[in-house]
Structure to design on (167 residues):
């Protein structure tokens, strides 16, 4: 039965895998449980910088940030353009432009780091789902084979009982 499982796995894998990788996947699928909590696994390996990047990305991508920053810009423009006579940043708001450029220059890579980490999580999750599906298919195939044997034995028993009654 073990050999049959390996043949099924080989048939289902039909990908360009190295021999070593193929054997490793077959052993993993056949002999060990493969369920994995991807989020827990990745979160346990996150560095302080990774956590900060995720928090900043969550804040920078929220409506609270957009509304708050829009209010800050409006306040800056009104304060330096209308209210203050000797404004520290008069029109054309060079200091504000510098501030916005610095914010964008820092914010974009931080968001990209968070997205790259999410992409890695998705890749691991997809691989785990594929392995789980493959193992489920193997188990169902094995159950089907066992059910076939049970039905065959049941028919033999019924045939035997019928022949005994006929005698």
């Amino acid at each position: 039965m073990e050999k049959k499982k390996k043949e099924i796995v080989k048939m289902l894998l039909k990908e360009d895998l190295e021999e070593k990788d193929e054997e490793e996947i077959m052993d993993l699928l056949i002999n060990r449980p493969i369920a994995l909590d991807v989020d827990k696994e990745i979160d346990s390996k996150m560095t302080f910088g990774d956590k900060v990047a995720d928090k900043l990305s969550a804040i920078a991508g929220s409506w609270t940030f957009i509304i708050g920053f829009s209010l800050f810009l409006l306040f800056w423009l009104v304060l330096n353009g209308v209210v203050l006579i000797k404004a520290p940043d008069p029109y054309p708001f060079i200091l504000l432009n510098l501030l916005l450029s610095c914010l964008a220059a820092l914010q974009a890579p931080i968001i990209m780091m968070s997205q790259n980490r999410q992409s890695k999580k998705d890749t691991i999750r997809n691989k785990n789902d594929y392995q789980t599906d493959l193992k489920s298919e193997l188990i169902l195939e094995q159950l089907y084979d066992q059910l076939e044997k049970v039905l065959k034995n049941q028919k033999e028993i019924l045939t035997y009982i019928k022949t005994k009654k006929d005698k």
Remarks:
- Residues 30 and 139 are 9 Å apart (CA to CA).
- DSSP finds six helices and no strands in the chain.
- The mean pLDDT is 84.
